[in-house]
Amino acid sequence: MILLFQERNHGTAKFSVHLRIQCFLYISAIKGQNPFPLATQCSIGLAKIVTKGRMMREQFTSELKAAMKAGDKPRVDTIRMITAALKDKDIEARGQGKTVSDEDILALLQKLVKSRQESKEIYEKAGRPELAAQEGAEIAIIQGFLPQPLSEAEVEDAIAAALAETGAASIKDMGKVVAVLKAKYAGRMDFGKASGAVKAKLSA
Fold this sequence. Notes:
Layout: E1 6-9, E2 12-15, H1 17-29, H2 35-50, H3 54-70, H4 73-95, H5 102-125, H6 129-143, H7 152-166, H8 174-184, H9 191-203
Antiparallel strand pairs: 1-2
């Protein structure tokens, strides 16, 4: 029994062969049991993988339609910029045999905010307030798609909890700690700064 799982991406159908084989091997390894409930479990698991990143994509689509209807050009342009960056991310992920999840999208949004904050500072120092204001407006729109950021105290607590959870004892465990933070707090903290804080604690 071979399960065929079809993923649709912009009208193009493709089969997830690796996952299909995993399900087939899993079902075949169970002897003396009805394989159909197991097949259903596999299908559900695969469906979850396909829907990764779908919720935020739908939010971008609905917000773009609303902005276009309201004639809000700055918002329309910013959301279109986000979706263009997301398409590039999708292409990169497909080349690696991966999918883009909501967590990946949140990380992308953080990166977009950071780059515009840097541009804003440059324009301010160069005496170009109008361009700095434009960057600030884009930052505000992008941040509207991000969850409430953690306070400094909450970041400290999150790092302490991640250290305890992973049992990290030296700098070589830093990757495990940061992975836990990224899994739990995507879009809610600056992982560049968090990594620095983790490194400092493990180096002390």
